[in-house]
């Protein structure tokens, strides 16, 4: 069964887009029903050739599963097919007369029609392992009663609620995290032990059951900052929505699922999860990220100060080798400062190296260009994101090579500086291939990298550190091409 869930339904069934969307909505939220029911759920749809086919399966997190193997893709036959057809005909939940023996376990099977607008889009079967059902307690009885409400809402098209968010990006509450059952007035009829613990973590010390849930929560939120405007409708269960409560002593994620009958609200389920530790860790990470960015910012400032001091020192020297050496040192320090500046603006230890190259290339070319001999430049391909360790070395390599091309090859003649980059992904580290070509004066006679100046020696050493190779070639019809490769560290380990 290749393709997405929606694509398969469009290909294998005659369902319209509205029904397909409804089934997708159901599958994004049916873990709730599986957990309340202590049962496996299987979604069946009628194919174009008249077969009932399983297209979805979810297991409970609150109890023992029934199907150890996924049954998606199988067709219903025999009594099970008859059960599905009977659910469609009657428009409500139906149950097989006697439990089914499955792998020496007694399993109760029920079928619930899934109504989407004016048609039955599919059928959900509920498979309960009778041999592992816990001894009925207040908790289990409450779960079963709430599951019964959802089953009836599913059969009448009142659940799942369209447009309702199913959870947070992190910390989404589930049934096992904590559940509160409210009456139509928002009074707590029942709360699981985990839910009570979560409420007490916020700072509430009194009773919860029998109290108005919104008043309980809002009573511990005095002077804790702005309140989410959606919180009230979540805590009263008036709408299917989610929110988060933060107090000085803790934080909880809450989500409401209204319970309706004939489209009239008769109560609500509120799922609640204590996310205090999760939010504390997130806060610590954000603080560490901010500290690291501040360090990069200060390093950049310090490097710029060093560059300014070197520049002042160079001005005191007469023209000659000493002054040129200090100018080159200023440029190298500035190249490293650009990398630290980029790191100070990001949220991880990686650098958008295309931005670094553009800035270095623009800075060098503008200094070297004269009105008599203009230098044009262009960049092709992409360097991509690079880890900080590699970015420092690459920045120095690119600065040296661009400076050499602009200063020595093109200053007297002008021309075009062309930078090209190609990156290939590999399991042991991406391979970056870079070429810097000009149409200037070409390589000096007898040029040998090992015998060249300090800048060339720095480049050769840094390329070797990046597990790459470098070579200088004649560019046709004139000029020079420098080509080098580098094996980059994996970005996946940047956060380790």
From TrEMBL:
GO terms for molecular function: ATP binding; protein histidine kinase activity. Residues 294-490 form the Histidine kinase domain. Its EC number is 2.7.13.3. It comes from the Bacteria. It catalyses: ATP + protein L-histidine = ADP + protein N-phospho-L-histidine. The keyword Transferase applies. Keywords: ATP-binding, Kinase, Nucleotide-binding, Phosphoprotein, Transferase. It is an enzyme of class 2 (transferase). PANTHER family: ETHYLENE RESPONSE SENSOR PROTEIN, TWO-COMPONENT SYSTEM SENSOR PROTEIN. This is histidine kinase. The lineage of its organism: Bacteria, Bacillati, Actinomycetota, Actinomycetes, Micrococcales.
